[in-house]
Amino acid sequence: MRVAVIGIGNILMGDEGVGIAVVNELKKLDIKADIYDCGTMGIDTLNTIAGYDKVIVVDAVKGFGKPGDIIKIRPEEIKGGKIVSMHDVDFISVINIAKSIVKLPEMVIIGIEVESVKEGLELSESVRRTIPKAIEEIIKEIESSVQD
Length: 148
Prior knowledge:
Elements: E1 3-8, H1 18-26, E2 34-39, H2 45-49, E3 54-62, E4 70-73, E5 82-83, H3 91-98, E6 106-113, H4 125-128, H5 131-147
Helix pairs in contact: 1-5
């Protein structure tokens, strides 16, 4: 099974860049998945995920809990909360557009609840402390996929 992990976010907007921070840490590890920093690519992200069986998306979320909480959710399950997006087209919109055109891989979102989305390069302490736990969740998801 081919697995990709993509980090989405804008590192110039505080906690909105947490997806990028997580994939940068994942790149230092020896894991059985391809790792991508998709930044604010929007619809161009579809080119990155083409050909994979499973894609794990790491992104900032809002409205699912308290700052630093981690959620694991499939795109079609998102209700109430939302993916935090400083992009032209947010990732969920990209998925909704694409699924009517092409067969998409299985997707899981590892979302990290933000505390602050404002100009700046620093993550809030509550979000920064969550990165190791998010990495553990991603590794579990990869390992369960590779064993299937």
